[in-house]
Amino acid sequence: MADPRISIIDKRLKGISNIIAVSSGKGGVGKSLIASTLALTLARKGYKVGLFDLDFTSPSTHIILGVKGLYPKEEKGIIPPQVHGLKYMSIVYYSGDHASPLRGADVSNALIELLAITRWNTLDFLIIDMPPGISDATLDLVRLIKGIKFLIVTTPSQLAFETVRKLIGLLTELKIHMIGVVENMKMKESSFIKQQVESRGIAFWGEIPFDTELEEEIGNVNKLSRTVFGRKVVEIVAKNMNP
Amino acid sequence: MHEWALAEAVISTTSEIVEKEGIKEIREVRIKVGELQQIELDILEFALSQLKTSKFKNTKFDIETVRAELKCRVCGHRWIFNREKLDENTAEAIHFVPEIAHTYIKCPKCGSPDFEILQGRGIWLESLKGVK
Predict the structure, then answer these.
(1) A128-166 burial, b if ≥16 CB within 10 A, otherwise e?
(2) pTM score of the predicted model
(3) How distant, in Å, are the alpha carbons of A36, A90, B7 from that of A87?
(4) How far is CA A86 from the centre of its chain?
């Protein structure tokens, strides 16, 4: 007759002012690093922030944040642990170091389960690190979360932007608000992505140079925030986000 | 106490349906609970009794457990989920997110994690009876 979990999702999310899915058409463009750094930046500015890793088959934000040995508390649902000032939720609490080979329907079911039982309470921002592409997680979030906004990440590569172009097309058709596009891993001067984005009526939030030092600072959020990448995210937040 | 969150979901969904259908009093709510999620029925029943609103005053909650039947997509083998074979942490992880079964459970015949949950995954609202 009915899946009882669906109707409780609105209630679970009603204390959250902004839900932002950090998404791209392709993997490897820096979604997880941008989602994590964006969440940390907002938390340091004094906002109440949650970070939800929705890349169930390949989660990585726990590595970026250096999360080890944490487990959500159970209290009429589950309470996300606090990590560096964020309420942090990831499937790795349950899957550990093991692979989670999930098909699309399983991804949907796990996503609905976690949305139905996670108690975020009040937040200014919930940042969602999306899996790459336009598949179950994207379609489910659009279906289940009213007022969801997308922040889109691309690289200067035409291969990345080709997939982003399709993502933008889909979200435009579905009338989903795209708050902006970030161009990551910029290596040389070009306004191609900026022009493409702005010609579609979407805000171009800025570009982040390819940072050769970034890899070494993954897992240490203080060092991460001092990298060129980290400082650029702070600048992009200051310029584009006025909650 | 994760059962509490699921009980809230049952009350919320039932309330939405009765509102839509113009039902004044709910007589019976039938719920199916899949064994894969290992829901503690006494906690679920207690939570339902605590969360119910006036429309549920005379409601009987009929809870039926359903065996979790799994089918391997590689070799076609079918088997029944057995909680006893799992350690405490694994069982608890599957309790919170049943899809985590794909992380820890393999087909007993061919060893593949690529199986289908044919039935008995989690909680399902089966039917309700009421008076308009």
Answers:
(1) bbbbbbbebbbebbbebbeebebbbbbbbbeebbebbbe
(2) 0.95
(3) 12, 10, 24
(4) 13
Asked if B1 and B43 count as a contact pair (C-beta separation under 8 A), the reply is yes
Q: What is the pLDDT of residues A120-173, one digit of tens each?
A: 999 999 999 999 999 999 999 999 999 999 999 999 999 999 999 999 999 999
Interface check for B82 against chain A (CB to CB < 8 A): the answer is no
Distance between CA A51 and CA A57 in Å, rounded?
17
Considering only the C-alpha atoms of chain B, give the largest distance between any 2 of them, rounded to a whole number of Å: 53
CB neighbour class for A74 (10 Å; exposed up to 12, middle 13-18, buried from 19): middle
Tell how far CA B108 is from the center of its chain.
Answer: 24
Are A8 and B114 in contact (CB < 8 Å)? no
Convert the pLDDT of each residue in B19-35 to its tens digit: 999 998 999 999 999 99
Count of all residues that appear for chain B in the document: 132
Q: To probe the interface with A, which of B4, B8, B112 has the most A CB atoms within 10 Å? A: B8
Distance from the Cα of B35 to chain A's closest Cα (Å) equals: 16
